[in-house]
Amino acid sequence: MDSFVIQGGRRLTGRMQIEGAKNAALPILAATLLTDEPVILQNVPEHSDIRNMLGLLQSVGSETTMGGGEIKTHVTDSSRSVGQYDIVKTMRASISTLGPLLAKRGVAVISMPGGCSFGDRPIDLHLRGMEALGAKIAMRNGYITATCDRLQGATIFLGGPFGSTVLGTANVMSAAVLARGITTIESAACEPEIVDLATMLNGMGARIRGAGGPRITIEGVDQLGSVTHRIMPDRIIAGTYAIAAAITNGDVILDEFPWDSLLAAMDRLRTIGVHIHRVTPDPDPRCCTVQVTSERRLRATQITTQPHPGFATDLQAQFMALLCMAEGNSIINEKIYPERFLHVAELGRMGARITRHGSVCVVEGTGQLVGARVMASDLRASACLVLAGLAAQGETVVDRVYHLDRGYFKMEETLQRLGASIERVDAKEIPSDPNFELSATEIAAGAGTVIKQSPDC
Ligand code: EPU
User: Fold this and answer.
1) Is 324 a catalytic residue?
2) At 398, is the secondary structure helix, strand, or coil?
3) Residue 413, C-beta contacts closer than 8 angstroms, at least 6 positions apart
4) 160 in contact with ligand 1, CB cutoff 6 A
5) Atom of ligand 1 lying closest to residue 93 CA
6) Measured from the CB, is residue 299 less than 6 Å from ligand 1?
7) 3-state DSSP call for residue 154?
8) Given 1.10.490.10, 3.65.10.10, 1.10.1520.10, 3.20.20.70, which CATH number is that of 22-230?
9) Which pLDDT tens digit goes with each residue over 68-124?
């Protein structure tokens, strides 16, 4: 298994481009099952989750090719509609094939996605949506079996205890495009990835209005055609690299920055003292070029994660690393996934002072972190630990970076180009920790306590 070895304290400078969004590409890839025509997707990131989704599409009869950021898909065999456990267990987004398979073929059999490292992730709202469209749902041997003749448009409420559901909205919207009549989704997810999916589906001939707001109306059509669609830039990657610039007191220019999708995160960055400057508007009004700089001590703040356009839960962990470097106590309230705090204990190994009370964490900003060996446990927690390592004094080893590879394409190479000292190594090559024995003199001199951040960052 690979690890990252990071020498902290280097200021990041330079220019980079934000890649396509994994969380937009996954349900869009699933939606290619809605047509018998070829589909071309551009600006697709080459992450392991994308490769897993291509494996799933192939297993249900789609021919796929991938290269240079472009994916071509073409369904050539509609006889197999089973999403096997081996693929689904690696990636929860596999559930987004349920709606397209059901709507196009009248049957979908998908392994039930299990829990996740940061808590329960139910799919009751997805299933409720399919039933409202007329599907019959049964559970057998850990598989969801959904069947229908032709789906029938309906009014569907998708609000749950934590707000709406992003992939649930994608699933129901994708199914409803081939339903007979009109479907209205109330309390739909407003995330930009839903807008991207609706744009792609409308390009195939669907009739969707209102995506991006809480009420989406879909007028069903009999069939969909071919489309070439460019995937939106990844707002979470954009936010992560903006934080990388801020946490190293760096100066980084980010091209294809999805400005409109990141207003809540930018508001928090500015509140704590990070400079964000819109350089030039790009041709796409949703994107622009942004310069992120930070040369001064950061201030504490409060963050509450919320559905879009609120502060994204997928940036919570990365902000926590940044707030460790601020002055004063910050409060983070996680309202989407109350257990999404696997990074807290690992940050503690780096000298962070964080107290957790249920879904709320108090981060005592000390302006300092110290390198340590830490373990990645999920995608965004991994990004948090890499950011912490960039700012920490000394060497940080982040183990199990395969979690990171699910959502960041060769992150170490991007960071190297910006001036970071970060290497990918086989974990077996890293010597185990030396056996520290502090003498009485060293203890008296304070050895083993956290070290102040270097002036560079
Ligand atoms: N929920 C239910 N019932 C459901 C579905 C969800 O109660 O049927 C609850 C969840 O437990 C959670 C909340 O609703 O508390 C929101 O979950 P949602 O369904 O919106 O999450 P998701 O669609 O499964 C996507 C992203 C996640 C991101 C969430 C929230 C993809 C592939 N995944 O998941 O991304 O955290 O939306 O914004 O789009 C990540 O990229 O690291 C990641 C986890």
Assistant:
1) no
2) strand
3) none
4) yes
5) 32
6) no
7) coil
8) 3.65.10.10
9) 999 999 999 999 999 999 989 889 999 999 999 999 999 999 999 866 677 788 999
